[in-house]
Amino acid sequence: MKQADFEKKYADFWLRLEKNILMEFKPSVRGNTSVGVKFSDKEDGRLITESKGSFPEDYRLLCHHLSLSRSRNYSPLLIDRLERLVNHAHQLFYKRKSHFNNSLLIYFTCNFPSAIRREWRWITLSSLLFFGTFFGMLITLQYYPDMVYTVIPAEQLAQMESMYDPSQDKIGRNRNSGSDFQMFGFYVFNNTGIGLKTFASGLGFGVGTVITLIFNGLTIGGVAGYLSFIGYGSTFWSFVSGHSAMELTAIVLSGAAGFKLSFAIINPGRKSRLLALRDSAKQAVYIMYGVSMMFIVAAFIEAYWSSMSDIPAIIKYSVGLFNWALLLLYFFFAGRSRG
After folding, report:
1. Contact call for residues 331 and 117 (beta carbons, < 8 A)
2. Exposed/middle/buried for 258, CB within 10 Å: 0-12, 13-18, 19+?
3. Quick one: the chain helix, strand, coil %, rounded to 5?
4. How far is CA 25 from the centre of its chain?
5. Helix or strand or coil: residue 170?
6. Residues 6+ apart with CB under 8 A from 65
7. What is the Cβ-side half-sphere exposure of residue 36, based on CA atoms within 13 angstroms?
8. Does the model's pTM come out above 0.90?
């Protein structure tokens, strides 16, 4: 649909929402030209009465209009108008319907998985780079084990052998490591650091994100392949099975968010690069909120569950498979009916 036809079709709908929003926020925004209309008190009451009952549906339709305008590369003026309107409508909707806890619930049950599904192209690219190098290194080391020294120093490999020695009381840790709580803090810092680096490096035209994903894929695959080759595979795989779903998927999603930033710089479309980057950054950071929580959950599992050596491996594998299945079902199906 051409932009002129699109604007003509929905002009009355947008105007009605603009007037209703101004009415709800009066007197502080009455006459506010950022939304674009002024009206009489008599007209206010009529419009509010007409649309109050359908405001949630109107809000969702408005978000859809903004999404269509962006995907069809309509003019920046139209997109800016719809962005302002969505922002005001968002404040009004959640002022009426929700408080902070409910907003979190809505985000994780609907908005976050929906946002992930919309970025499936970048997630596919990020997955290929990360898991491709991971499995490539893992398989290669079963035939050419000396290649591990090209990505991991000998001192670090010796440390890995000690950490995953089956005689360890706590698997995956140094013998002088701290308490579970201290390790939880360490894992949160380490994992979120990887995710943020992968995300932020997208500002370098995506080159940094590509390098970070490949490096992490080679390193993690190198550790997994080496320990499997020397006979510590059962200890290693039972350790990582519990938290791998959250941690590895979070790394991939961080890469996808980084690619979203880089694409806005490389191909801004009709927008200026700064405006395109600003809009993409909002969406990418919105995804990173959920990714950060995934890293925290992964760190909690790693600190309090994965390191336990007295739990049979079959139980750990079962829990790990369950976590993978649950996470995939969540991203594929959560929030579809609400969306």
Report:
1. yes
2. buried
3. 80, 0, 20
4. 32
5. strand
6. 10, 14, 82
7. 16
8. no
